Amino acid sequence: MKQESLDNIRHSFAHLLASAVQKLYPKAQFGIGPVIENGFYYDFKNIDISEKDLPKLEKEMRGIAMRNLAFKKELWPVLKAAAYFKKKKQPFKVELIKDLSREKKVGKVGMVWTGDVFLDLCRGGHIKNTRELPLDAFKLTHVAGAYWRGDEKNPMLKRVYGAAFQTTKELEQYLWQQEEAKKRDHRKLGKELGLFSIADEVGPGLPMFYPKGALLRRIVEQYITTLQEENGYHPIWIPHITKGELYRISGHLDKFDAMYPAMKLKGEADYYLKPMNCPHFMMLYKGIPHSWRELPLRWTATTTNYRYEKSGELSGLTRVRSLTQDDCHVFLRPDQIEEELNLMFDMIEAAYLKFGFKDFWVRISTRDPKAKTKYIGSEKIWRESEKILSRLVKKRGWKQKAGVGEAAFYGPKLDFIFKDVLNREWQLSTVQLDMNLPERFSLEYVDQKGKKLRPVVLHRAILGSTERFLGILIEHFGGAFPLWLSPEQAWILPVSDKFTDYAKKVVEQLRLLSPSLRIVIRDENETLGKKIREGETQKIPYLLVVGEKEMAKAAVAPRKRGKGDLGLMSVAEFASLVKKELEEGA
Question: Residue 482: is the preceding peptide bond cis (ω within 30°)?
Fold first, then answer.
């Protein structure tokens, strides 16, 4: 089935949902009901509804659909449509019509009938009749709150979500995936595994990390740091606040809408929390003269930025207000662009293979040709930049899609979209080609003939942001991290207090044989069974039981996560087993 046909089915289900709500909740006010990935939703006001009410709503939808109602579109003059919805006490529809009239300059609007049951403002995209709806392949899934038009200053509405597919099998697969996603929810696992916390007293979107979580982020960031240094990247350091003048030069003050308000100090210029790092890199480059021989100059910093994301859009670690980026800027000559981009591509592939993400595609994010004033830079620079990125991705043979209007305001970019174990897509790595900021900051290098030229800048982040990446990583592995990533790789479990000293000797031996192994002795006054159950709940890769038999033979009895008992083995044998597993990157 073509996507257009499936979208028409999903849009028709949205109208069917609204029809059922009108029947069961006569005082309901209607917002919008668009098609989304995997289904649809519709926003309502003046209804008291929760997830326990969804089966009743579904039953009503099925009953309406069985009446074989036709979807019919009419074009109404703006004034007639506005008057109709005003009479029906539907203020959100009236507002939408006024906006269409004012902003789009339309004289008529689409009105779609669902038989004689429901009339809605709609531009269309429906099947012909409700009998065509696959009633065994849809389900209302959940209810959530949503501000009208996504603005927290507007009324809060009830949003009812539904899933819809062509076949029952596709629906069942999707519902299984959703249930599995709930089990893997990083917010749930983050609490259960003692990784991170978000406290109201600190603020929404500002996560704090417990020792295990802090260690996990250190392991991830250290891997990226090592990868970068092995490829000729050099660390820099930048402060977390800056004068507003810096963002006036870069254009962020005019174009970036997620900056926190200025810190106004008496007798001083306005200061801002930094929402991005690019301008600081530009100023460091500008602070010293550069020759063509130095380029490419690869600078990197893992540093935290602060962005005022709307509270309704915040979600655990995947949408935060304090985000740490493995940010990199490469200053180079135009003839070095292809080589540097390919180096970045190699690093991104290597990193995600290491983290267990193999399937990806690339979105080539370009300007919106209908809104060029949103961007800085000349037409020529944009054309050249977009052409270079497209050519190199094509040369690699990677799957690609166009992202019209998705570019940064200062240049086109490549967004790497990776699939996790549940086949969900996540935008992670980003590479941006920028010929605009060097111009705005008057950056220069001296060529072989002594002439001053502008460098090109490549912006790149492999993880995107540490916090978001960790949230995705937790869900990808369901908290059961491979050995090299696990904050606690092995627990030593003494059978009783009598064997605590032997457990300590085992730890000493293991640290001599494998110095970097992260080991914890669990010598609490609890039964062995309880310790094992807790270790399994905490998803520890190895649990090493030590008791009378193990002490007598100078051995350990390891249990491997997911495989159970491995049998008695010497400490040296276990160290060798772990070493091999770490070398394989498992």
Answer: no
Q: How far is CA 284 from CA 328, 340, 550, in A?
A: 13, 20, 59
33: number of Cβ within 10 Å: 24
CA distance 20 to 14: 10
- Residues designated as active site: 278, 307, 325, 327, 329, 413, 459
Q: Which residue(s) pair with 416 in the sheet?
A: 362
Let me know: does 191 contact 476? Beta carbons within 8 Å.
Answer: no
DSSP 36-98: ETTEEEEEEES----GGGHHHHHHHHHHHHTT-PBEEEEEEEHHHHHHHHHHTT-HHHHHHHH
* pLDDT tens per residue, range 42-79: 999 999 999 999 999 999 999 999 999 999 999 999 99
Token pair of 236, please?
Answer: 């820099």
Q: Which CATH class is domain 3-184?
A: alpha beta
Decide: residue 72, CB within 10 A, 0-12 exposed, 13-18 middle, 19+ buried.
Answer: middle
Domain ranges for the chain: 3-184, 196-238+281-471, 490-583
- Give the sign of the dihedral formed by CA 403, CA 406, CA 411, CA 413: negative
Residues 272/275/279/285 CA torsion (nearest 10 deg):
110
- Decide if 462 contacts 224 (C-beta within 8 A): yes
Task: Identify the CA nearest to 569 among candidates 517, 497, 482, 510.
Answer: 510
CA distance 351 to 366: 25
Q: What CATH number does the domain located at 196-238+281-471 have? A: 3.30.930.10
pLDDT, tens digit (0-9, with 9 covering 90-100), for 287-337: 999 999 999 999 999 999 999 998 878 899 999 999 999 999 999 998 999
Those residues whose C-beta lies under 8 Å from the C-beta of residue 81, and which sit 6 or more positions away, are 97, 109, 111, 121
Report the CATH fold assignment for 490-583.
Rossmann fold (3.40.50)
Is the pLDDT at 152 greater than 90, yes or no? no
pTM of the predicted protein model: 0.85
Tokens describing residue 60: 């009503």
Q: Which residues contact 144 (CB under 8 A, 6 or more apart)?
A: 158, 159, 161
Query: Is residue 171 within 8 Å of 163, Cβ to Cβ?
Result: yes
For residues 463 and 217, what is the distance between their CA atoms, to the nearest angstrom? 11
> Rounded distance, CA 466 to CA 303, Å?
10
The residue type at 104: K
Query: Computed from CA positions of residues 23, 27, 32, 38, in that sequence, does the dihedral angle turn out positive or negative?
Result: negative
Q: Determine the straight-line distance between the first and last CA of the chain, rounded to whole angstroms.
A: 40
- Closest by Cα among 318, 410, 414, 317 to 364: 414
CB pairs under 8 A, 24+ apart, for 452-456? 453/292, 453/333, 455/285, 455/290, 455/295, 455/331, 455/332, 455/333, 456/331, 456/332, 456/333, 456/334, 456/336, 456/337
